[in-house]
Amino acid sequence: MAQAQRITPRAQDFSEWYNDVIMQAELADYSPVRGCMVIRPLGYRIWELMQRALDDMFAATGHRNAYFPVFIPMSFLAKEAEHVEGFAKEVALVTHTRLKATGKTGAGAVAVDPSSALDEPLVVRPTSETIIYAMFAKWIQSYRDLPLLLNQWCNVVRWELRTRLFLRTTEFLWQEGHTAHATEGEAEAEARLILGIYRNFAEEWMAMPVLTGVKTDSEKFAGALRTYAMEALMQDNKGLQAGTTHNLGQNFAKAFEVKYQTAAGALEHVWNTSWGVSTRLVGGLIMTHSDDNGLIAPPKLAPVQAVIVPIWKTDQERSQVSGVGDQVKAALSKAGIRVELDLRDNLKPGAKYFEWEAKGVPLRLEIGPRDVAAGQVVAARRTGGKSPMRLEGIVAAAPAALQEIQAGLFATAKQRREEHSLRGATKQQFLEFMKGSGGFAYAGFCGGGECEAAIKAATGATIRVLPDPEFRSPEAPKTCLWCDEPSVAEAVWAQAY
Amino acid sequence: MAQAQRITPRAQDFSEWYNDVIMQAELADYSPVRGCMVIRPLGYRIWELMQRALDDMFAATGHRNAYFPVFIPMSFLAKEAEHVEGFAKEVALVTHTRLKATGKTGAGAVAVDPSSALDEPLVVRPTSETIIYAMFAKWIQSYRDLPLLLNQWCNVVRWELRTRLFLRTTEFLWQEGHTAHATEGEAEAEARLILGIYRNFAEEWMAMPVLTGVKTDSEKFAGALRTYAMEALMQDNKGLQAGTTHNLGQNFAKAFEVKYQTAAGALEHVWNTSWGVSTRLVGGLIMTHSDDNGLIAPPKLAPVQAVIVPIWKTDQERSQVSGVGDQVKAALSKAGIRVELDLRDNLKPGAKYFEWEAKGVPLRLEIGPRDVAAGQVVAARRTGGKSPMRLEGIVAAAPAALQEIQAGLFATAKQRREEHSLRGATKQQFLEFMKGSGGFAYAGFCGGGECEAAIKAATGATIRVLPDPEFRSPEAPKTCLWCDEPSVAEAVWAQAY
Fold first, then answer.
1. A14-289: in CATH 3.10.310.30
2. Which of B65, B89, B101 sits opposite A98 (nearest CB)?
3. CATH for the B421-494 domain, from 3.40.50.720, 3.30.110.30, 3.30.300.160, 3.30.70.100
4. Under CATH, what is the fold of the domain B306-401?
């Protein structure tokens, strides 16, 4: 396919670097449709591996998958006032259902048939609260029907003006969980449970450390009572909102009349939650770990975890090293490792190394004739370092190396985050921090939207979360970073994607 | 949830029966959006099991998953003349991207903002040949890039006037494979390979016997050179097109300039195929096997393969039978069986039987106190028959029973199909057959579209396929069923969904 090209170094232009990594690794591509991306096989495989891991966690906690229509009647969106206001400026609207011939040929051969106008326009779902809770109203009658714990994997559309591969696209793929509960407490526990699952997934699978906490009103989901989020710090020291869970209270239940009969016979509105992560996570994975040679995929989510590259000069050597390569592949494959054997004749080993590095394969096993003679391979880690690995015992050594790489990626990312976290800063230090390298700044917050707005105007930084207890500074800040009034909560600020 | 209701018997009204089975089993529901369905957890789980099985087969034959935009520029659709003609009357068109406030509150609070009109309307994909081959043109340069074998799982929209749950809905879920090859022969082999995979899946997993063959021009895909299909016979003796593969020739390659350089250095257009199966298969599964008590799920695709129903009167008995139930569940689960233990206190065993029968569970294991004493359970098959099963050895006996049920469903369906197949009929016999019970009629065909049209007008029957050799009658028909001119091929006719 496309010829290998140099990747712009991170230090030169982080944004260009990010795009280069994606294009060079063939993770995704721009499409002819404004703001929509094409997810290529390697990128899609990462998403599938993410889906599998998350789906297992959702199932283990009693959630079941379903599928709701991609179209939402315009009037449904309007029923929850904050919700429609939040999405009104970024919806794709279906208004007609037929094309008619224009008499021309080729690209201009058809036009919208005006006689096919819909009575009520349909919105391509930007999120599915309204259509799903309309169905919940039909399905839920009694307390015995609760909790109702559903999830769907689907595409959603938000008409974005400034798009970026994986991070912000007009169409993206995601999961959206939607649940109904008998009490406020149960809904709150659900929103918290899922936040924990998200964090566990981010840290254990993506090797991406996150902060969790609650959003301020200015950043919460349109229609929610409270929004929780997990936030990660990218290599350019910008924050990435990586997943959110919402306690929706009874807002949608009231708009869509979702009621249930209690054991005592009373009729009450249910309490809802919704929560989602999206293909944006693939962008987070890239920006957390990759380097100037391309993608670095954490082993647990790497489409190819190990690649075997045999090295030969003569046909006889080729036969010998590829024979050993076959055996290693079979053995590692049997051990559950996603492994490839690169026997291409039209590329030299160096070119293969270059390509597999760009594609983020964590472990490369080189086999030359002398390695065969010595009963070993040379194991090169994508994160650096090369050492012999005995053929005998390779089915234990290779997984162990992958585990070390996974753990190392998490440790490195966490250390980097902490090195770019500022605690207890004065206003002046904060301004310098945000003007300089940036990162997560922990500071006191008076709770006022004016201070949030002023800080955003001055620095571009927003409150990512009011952090959960385990992330808070040992000593609670006493005053607001900006106005010096008493602090009501510690906040974490960052410039963000 | 909804109270159990009687299912309309098949003999009384097949169409009502079909809807009742779906509603009673909670497989799907009608949505507030015209023509769109909601797939509920049980129905979606069947689809997920189908996906898993098919996806493994696609991967084993070298196909990789990707994802392309849901929106297709109107001009793209227009580039292949037959293609746009085929879809022009059934497209959802996105024309605007913002809502504006009307000043009202509630459902009428917003309207389409006319200032947000798109320069070029977007079509919600009815199928993705055009957008995918536009990307292929970018990715394919040399013979080394071929074959390119991609697949995507996604939603598609075709604006249908008469919809039916699973069988024909405005939005449906499917997979669409898209491949590019260096030669016509390779594209033809690919279309045939996938047809074989589809048939294997239908017969081995769905227990649904199918005929395969080629479509006549009047039934082929808009833009294809040749369309292959697999066709099944439902219990009402109507045909169901269950999957199609298309040899697209160079039609789209020419429209989208998809060219490659041969090893010799020449520049040639690629040869494409596309192929798909959809959530329609769930409808086929239902109409092949189910009965007047509800769904019958073939074990390989049953979300719940075995349900354990303990029977008790006293608390002591409950403790005893549920203890054994737990052990059986753990043992079967470990053996890879999808098993549920129904310990609900608010339902009597009879009500549980009724519910699990409606939901199609192939094997029910009843455990009463006397069964525990005798070291057995009573195994009731959804397809009929009840017999004791020893607790000792149940991890072998239960899977064996499921295999027998799977094989029995296929045999029954095949026998039924053959009983409703008519071979070598005269015109008169054919007319009576189509007026009567209907089914698959094998007859000679002159190859003329006039005869096809006349037969359709007279009987409603269409040519489902010109069958592959293994399905043809021992003696080739000599004359056309309708016009008595020489037959060019045997055809299989049926009234169809």
1. no
2. B89
3. 3.30.110.30
4. Rossmann fold (3.40.50)
Residue A4 has pLDDT above 70, yes or no: no
Q: Are A248 and A129 in contact (CB under 8 A)?
A: yes
Determine the 3-state secondary structure of B269 from DSSP: strand
Cα–Cα distance measured from residue A272 to residue A249, given in angstroms and rounded to the nearest whole number: 6
A84·B110 Cβ contact <8 A: yes
Chain B closest CA to A428's CA: distance in Å? 41
Residue B473 CB coordination number (10 Å): 15
Is B91 in contact with A97 (Cβ distance < 8 A)? Answer: yes
User: Would you identify the CATH topology of the domain B14-99+111-289?
Assistant: BirA Bifunctional Protein; domain 2 (3.30.930)
Q: Which two tokens stand for residue A386?
A: 């090369």
CA–CA distance, B419 with B152 (Å, rounded to integer): 38
For A476-486, what is each residue's pLDDT tens digit?
999 999 999 99
Selected residue of A27, A47, A68 to mutate for chain B interface (largest B Cβ count, 10 A): A68
DSSP string, B374-442: HTEEEEEETTS-EEEEESTTHHHHHHHHHHHHHHHHHHHHHHHHHHTEEES--HHHHHHHHHTT--EEE
Q: Provide mean pLDDT across the span A286-291.
A: 98
pLDDT digits (tens, 9 = 90+) for B95-126: 999 999 999 988 899 999 999 999 999 999 99
Class of the CATH domain delimited by A304-403: alpha beta
Looking up tokens 């990218």 gives A234
Are A110 and B77 in contact (CB < 8 Å)? yes
Residue B19 region by backbone torsions, left for phi larger than 0, else alpha for psi between -120 and 50, else beta: alpha
pLDDT, tens digit, 9 for 90 and up, residues A182-228: 999 999 999 999 999 999 999 999 999 999 999 999 889 988 999 99
Minimum Cα–Cα distance from A45: chain B residue: B65
What fold characterizes domain A422-494?
Translation Initiation Factor IF3 (3.30.110)
Task: Write the residue in B31, B84, B124 that is nearest to A110 by C-beta.
Answer: B84
Contact A65 B48 (CB under 8 A): yes
Q: Which pLDDT value is given to residue A1? A: 42
Interface size, chain A vs chain B, as Cβ–Cβ contacts under 8 Å = 227
Section B335-346 average pLDDT: 96
ipTM of the complex: 0.97
Q: What does the pLDDT read at residue B4?
A: 54
Residue of A nearest to B100 (CA): A88
Nearest CA in chain B to A344: B144
Cross-chain CB nearest to B94 (options A32, A65, A93): A93
Interface test with A, best of B70, B75, B142, B156 (most A CBs within 10 A): B70
